[in-house]
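User: quick one
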Amino acid sequence: MSSSDTLTGRDSPGRPAAPGGSAPEAGTLVADDSRSGRARAALRRRPNLGLGLGLGIATIYLSLIVLIPLAAVVWRSTEDGLGGFWAQVTTPESWSALKLTIGASVIVALVNLVMGTLIAWVLVRDSFPGKRIVEMLIDLPFALPTIVAGLVLLDLYGPGSPLGVNLAYARSGVLVALLFVTLPFVVRTVQPVLLEMDRDMEQAAASLGAGNAMIFRRIILPNLLPAMLSGTALAFSRSMSEFGSTVLISGNLPFKTQVAAVNIFGQIESDNVVGAAAVSTVLLVVALIVLVTMDVLQRWGSRRG
Amino acid sequence: MFRSRFKWGATLAAGALALAGCGGGSGGDSGSGSSGQKVQLSLVAYSTPQEAYEQIIKAFQQTPEGQNITFTKSFGGSGDQSRAVESGLRADVVAFSLEPDMTRLVKAKIVAEDWSKDQYNGMITESVVVIGTRKDNPKGLSTWQDLVKPDVEVITPNPFTSGGARWNVMAAYGAASRKGAAEQDGVDYLNSLFANVPVQDDSARKSLQTFSSGKGDAILAYENEAIFAQQKNVALDYVVPDETILIENPVAVTATSEHPAEAKAFLDFLRTPKAQEIFVKNGYRPTADQVPGADKFSAPSGLFTIKDFGGWSEVAKKFFDPKGSIMADVERKLGVSVEQ
Amino acid sequence: MAKYALRASALIYLLFLLVLPVGVICWKTFADGVGPVVESLSSPSALHAFKVTAQVALFAVLANTLFGVGTAVLLVRHDFPGKRILNALIDLSIAVSPVVVGLALILVYGRFAPVGGWLSERGIDVIFSIPGMVLATIFVSIPLVIRAVAPVLQEIGIEQEQAAWTLGARPWQAFLRVTLPGIRWALAYGVVLALARSLGEYGAVAVVSGRLVDQTQTATLLVEERFQNFDPQTAYATAFAMAVIAVGTLLLINLLRPKEDVQ
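Assistant: Done. Structure below.
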C-alpha cells in the first residue's frame, strides 16, 4: 500500500509497467562506426552485469529486512501446530480484538468512501477562502506521529474535553482515532482522477436536461469508482494495522476497546510469542488480501481509463 | 546548475549524518565494555520507582564511587521486565516488585543464588497495599468489603505481568481469608473483586494512569504509588486498610554484569541513609533504621506478610501459575489472558 | 444549493477531525506559557530523544534512498523473473502493522534468535539498541522513495541515457549526469515522505526499543513515556515539537508534489 500512490497526483499507480514494458534491448542503436560499435558491445554486456548486481543487492536488502522477519512470524505462529495457532487466535481476548478491529475498519472504510469522495469533490470543484490551507492539512495524518495524534485526540475527545464529550474507554474513541489516521487515503486517490476528468460528457448531459444527481450517478461515479475503491482499500488496510493513535484514547479495555495491534503488543510484552505471532499472521493475511484486491482494482481501473 | 544544487544537498546530508553520528557515538550506545574511564551500568526495574531511582542515580554520581558511572534505565511491569532480562535485555542491577521475579533470574543463572544472604534478605524498600479513591472519597470506600459492592469499579493491574498486582491479590486474599485460615472465603472474595475490575493494565504505573484519567472508583496500589500520585497533583485520596500485606521489594546485581564492582558500589549506595531518604521522600518505607521522614508511615494493626501464606514459592504455584492456579481460574472466568 | 451543503459537510467533518486537534495541541502545550515548554524541550531526556530520533531517521532515510533509487531503476528498466514478487513485497511492507514489524524483527534479530544470537556473540546488539530501531524504521518506509521515483523514471524513458552511452559515457556517469537530474524532484519528494515517516514512527520502535529510558528512546517514545509518568508538560512539549516538524514536512511535501503538467 504505497502512500505515495495517493500523493503523486497521478491517476496511474506508481507501479512500473507490465513485464516487458520498457526493458532496454541491447543493441537497439543503429549507428555503425567503430566508436558506437564499442558502445553497442558495452550495451550488450552492461545491462546484465548491472541487472545481476542490482537484483542481488535488492533481494538481499528486502530479504534481510522484510521477507525473512515476516516469514519468521508466520513460522513461529505454527509452533504448536495448526491447532495451537487456532487456539491462540480464538482466545476470548484475541478473538474480541480481531472482531473489533475488522468491524471498526469496515465502518471507517465506508465512512471514508463517502466523506473522502465528498472532500475530494469539494477540493476540486469548489473554491473558497482558505482552500489552499485545507488542501495542505489533508496530508497531516500522514506526517503526524501516531502517538501525537493519539494524545491530541485524547485531549479533544477524552475526559477534560473542551467539547464536553468523553469518548475515552469507548469504541467511539477508537473510531475517531481510526478516522483521523485514514483521512487522506480516499481523498488523495480520488482527487487526481477528478482533476483529469473530461467535463465534456457532463456538459453534454446537462445540456440534454440531465439533473446533477443523474450526471453524478451515470457519468462521474463510474469513472471515479476504481479510484474510490482503491482509496477505500488503503484506508481499510491502514485502519486494520493502526496502533499508536488508539493506545491512549481507547484505554485498551479488553473485549471493549482493544484493537488487534494492541493485543499483539500486550502478548509480546508478556512473552507469549506464539499468540502474538498468530494474531500477527491473521493481520498479514488480511493485508495480503487487500493487496490482491487493490491489484485487481487497478487493472479494472486502467481498463476503463 | 543542477550540479551545484545537488552538491549542496549532498554536502548537507553528509554533514547532518556526521553530526548525528558524532553525537550519538558517545552517549547513545547501549554500551557494554566501553573503553576509557566512563562505565555504563544498566538498571532494569519495575515501574513505580522510576522517579526515586532517577534521583538516587544523580545522588550516586555525586559520590566518589559514582563519579564515572553513567546509567541506562528501563522501567516496566515487574513480570515483563524480569522476562525481558531472561530473554536477553542486558542488566547490571535489577530491582523488582517481588521475589519471584528475582527467583526467575536465579533459575536462569543471571542472578547469583546468594543474592538475598544479607541482613535485609535482599530487600531494599517496603510498602503496603492501600485502597486509593477519588478525592474526598465520594463513594465512601474504605474497607475490602466496600470494593465488592455492586456498581463499584476497582482498578488493579494484571497479576500475570505486574508485580504490584500480585501484592494486591495477596493483600485482598489475606484480608478476606483471615490470613489464609478461611481459604474458600478468600477465593470467593477474589472472584467478586475481579468481577468489578474493568481493565487490567500491564503495570502498576499504567493502572495509576488509567485511574487518574477517570476510570474506576477505587484503585488497589502500593502506598508509594498513592503518595507519588498525590505529589503529582492527581486528585486521589487513599486509605491504609487495617488488614493489608507488607510489600518487600528485592534488588540485586546480576552475575552476568560486565562491571560487577561498579554494580556492587551502586547497590551499597542504595543502602546508605542518603538513598533510603530519597526512597522515603518518594513514598517508600525504608529497610534501614532511623531514616528521617519515616515516621509519617502508619503501622496497620492487621499487617501480615507473604510468609503467612508459605512464602512466594508456595504462593506463586498456588495463586499465579498460568497453567492452573487460583488466579488463573479467576481470570479464565473473566476471559482475561493469563499467558506468561 | 447542493454546492453549499457539500462544502459545509466537508468543512465540518474536517473541522472536528483535523483542525480542532491541531488547535488543541497548541492550546494544551502553551497553557502555562512558553517558559515551561522551552524548559521541557531542553531537558537532557528530550534532547537525547531528539538526537536518537534524528540518528535513526537519517540512517533509515539514507538506506531507503539508495535502495529506493536502485530498485526503481531495476523495476522500470529491467525485466526479470520474480519481478511481481519484488513488487508485492515492497507494497506489503507499508501495509504491515508496526507492532508486527517489531515482532518480526525480534524473532530474527533478538538476542536468542538465529541471526541475532550470531551477531550478539560478536558483540553487536540489534534489538534493544539503535540498529534494531533503524531496521524497524527502514521496514516501514521502504516503498516511499521507490514509488515516488519509479513513475517519473518511466516517463523519462531511456533515450537520453542511451544517447549518453553511445557517446562513450560509462554507466555510472550516465546515471549521475543524466538519470539522477531527471528524477531529482521526484526523488526529493520521496525522500521527504520517507523522512516524515521515519521521524514519526512509534509502534515498531516501541516494540524493539525495550523501554530503555534515555537510551533508545525516540521523541515519539518520549511522548508516551512522559505522559504515562505524569509529566504532561514534557509530553505535550515534545508532541508539539513533533507536530511542528510534521507541518514543516507537509509544506515541503506540497511544494515538491509532482504537478499534473510534469516538467
